[in-house]
Every structure is written in structure tokens, then in C-alpha cells.
Amino acid sequence: MGDAAFTTMLNLSQDGCQAIEDAFVIAEQLNRLSSQQAPQQAFAEYRRIRKPKAE
Ligand SMILES: Cc1cc2nc3c(=O)[nH]c(=O)nc-3n(C[C@H](O)[C@H](O)[C@H](O)COP(=O)(O)OP(=O)(O)OC[C@H]3O[C@@H](n4cnc5c(N)ncnc54)[C@H](O)[C@@H]3O)c2cc1C
Asked: Ligand 1 pocket, 2 CB below 6 A?
């Protein structure tokens, strides 16, 4: 997530904002998991939700 997942052009001043949105979405997806589900499901869902915005 954050700079490790993507970088935008520095003059857009967006990467810090995007890292905060990433943190919110990944926390939300992890919170939705039942105790039987693997965290990988949350990470896959995070990627599906965030990829279009990052692109
Ligand atoms: C000059 C400048 C101006 C910017 N202006 C803006 C702006 O106006 N608006 C905006 O939204 N964004 C701005 N950004 C971008 C923003 O600062 C970054 O996108 C944001 O900080 C990324 O957050 P991050 O948590 O992904 O990574 P980072 O903030 O880089 O955090 C990564 C952390 O991991 C630690 N780390 C690294 N390796 C390891 C390791 N092996 N073990 C443990 N810890 C490790 C590092 O020490 C660091 O604390 C600016 C960036 C720069 C350089």
C-alpha cells in the first residue's frame, strides 16, 4: 500500500492522500473477515477496490 504500491507524479501532491485512503480501505476489508477467512482475501479485495483509483 501507499508508496510501495504506486506513485503518482510528485507535483500532483496526492501520494500521501492515497496512502491514507489505502489504509482506510485495507482496515475496512480486514474488519469484514470472519475468523475462518484468510487475510489474503482482504488484500485481494483491497487491490480490486483501489487499483482503478491509483491508475
Ligand atoms: C518533498 C515531498 C513532498 C510531498 N508532498 C506531498 C503532498 O503535498 N501531499 C501528499 O499527499 N503527498 C505528498 N508527498 C508524498 C507523501 O509524503 C508519501 O506519498 C507518503 O508519505 C507515503 O506514505 P507511505 O506510508 O506509503 O510511505 P513512507 O511515508 O515512506 O513510510 C514508509 C516507512 O517505512 C519505513 N521503512 C522502510 N523500510 C523499512 C524496513 N525494512 N523495516 C521497517 N520500516 C521500514 C520508513 O522508515 C518509513 O517510515 C510528498 C513527498 C515528498 C518527498
From this structure: yes
Distance CA 40, CA 46 (A): 10
As a whole number, mean pLDDT of residues 4-10 equals 81
Q: Where are the domains of the chain?
A: 2-54
The DSSP line for 13-52 is --HHHHHHHHHHHHHHHHHH--TTS-HHHHHHHHHHHHHH
**How confident is the prediction for the chain on average, in pLDDT?**
91
CA of 16 to the centre of ligand 1 (A): 7
> Who has greater pLDDT, 1 or 25?
25
